[in-house]
Amino acid sequence: MELASLGRAYLAALTPQRRTQLLQFLHNGVSSGKLSSPRSGKRAPTSSHKASAPRPGSPRWFALATPLEVEGTIYALNVSLSTQESIDTIAQDLGPSLLGLARAVRHELALQEPRG
Fold first, then answer.
1. Cβ within 8 Å of residue 34, ≥6 positions away
2. Measured between alpha carbons, how far is 89 from 66 in angstroms, rounded to an integer?
């Protein structure tokens, strides 16, 4: 969770205490091989994959995300792209636009009628 852009955006929206609890839960579950939901007691699905190094000159995939909290629910706005640019360049180019989009979405949601 802390390695992917969506997970990092989600974690950024949590209080420090809740973030620590969630990361500890995930770490303990992964370490023990028994990742289960504290609510249901059921084992959560897990996956693993082996990453391979990209070939020189081949495009790389990057993702940027920012949290968007709406009525207590945490969402993440995400942009993913394949490019040969560095992540620093991508963050400088797209980061401000992504943050602006999050502000615009929050503004538009504030104008809407409350849900149910």
1. 43
2. 17
CA distances for 77 relative to 3, 90, 101, 113, angstroms:
16, 16, 8, 22
Q: 11 with 17: CB under 8 angstroms?
A: no
Contact 97, 39 (CB under 8 A): no
Q: How far is CA 91 from CA 34, 98, 109, in A?
A: 36, 9, 26
pLDDT of residue 45: 41
For 4-16, how does the pLDDT look when each residue is reduced to its tens digit (9 = 90+)? 787 888 888 888 9
Buried b (16+ CB within 10 A) or exposed e, 10-23: bbebbeeeeeeebe
Dist. CA 34–CA 109, nearest whole Å: 39
Give the 3-state secondary structure of residue 67: strand
> What digits encode the pLDDT tens for the residues 19-57?
898 888 888 876 555 544 444 444 444 434 444 555 666
Count how many Cα atoms sit within 13 Å of the Cα of residue 23 in the half-sphere of its side chain.
Answer: 14
